[in-house]
Amino acid sequence: MSDIEDSKILSEYSSRDKWLRELFSFSNSTSFSVSPYFCFAMDQIGDEVIYPGSCFDDVTEKTNICFLQCRKLGFGGNAFIRDNPKRIIFLCQETFDYFLKNGEYQEAQNIITHELIHWIDLNRNFDFLDQDKLFCSEFRARILSGQCPDYYTGSNTLLNRIFNNYEQCALDGALSSMKSVDSKFKNWKPSQDLIEKCKND
Length: 201
Ligand SMILES: [Zn+2]
Hints:
Largest sheet: 4 strands, mixed
Number of domains: 2
Structural class: alpha/beta
Bound molecules: zinc ion
Number of helices: 8
Number of strands: 4
């Protein structure tokens, strides 16, 4: 690899990394607006500290969120969370490079917030091997991350039906996430009871 290519990768890494550190620094002077969904999730995380770092950091380091070249590893999603050997959020750098290059900071934050909701559910002892719990967490992560926004808040029934499709959006998103986790969920559907339970969780 040439020096020019090397330095290009280094500077790209730096700006992506810089943005992530800025997001978790809670300074009021971020160069982009911090999403209310992100703030809500960080509030729920409480005293725990999220440390941006490198995925190559040693397991004993504090790093618990980092960028990963997912496509090289054959993962087609945007991010994922692992609890072993320690809890860590992996962000797919291909996705983030695209959003950050285009100034789509909200979309980038929504993906991180989605993983933070999973983090919170793990703190609440959700067992993701339990399909109902996995579904609830995916459903909650869609709604509470801003990935399924509620567009209309008025009282017109027709407009409500047209615009407020966040529940369907969360359902579709949760099912597609589950399918990508394990193909055994290909034909799995939650009961209406379960959906209501997750909504009110
Ligand atoms: Zn998820």
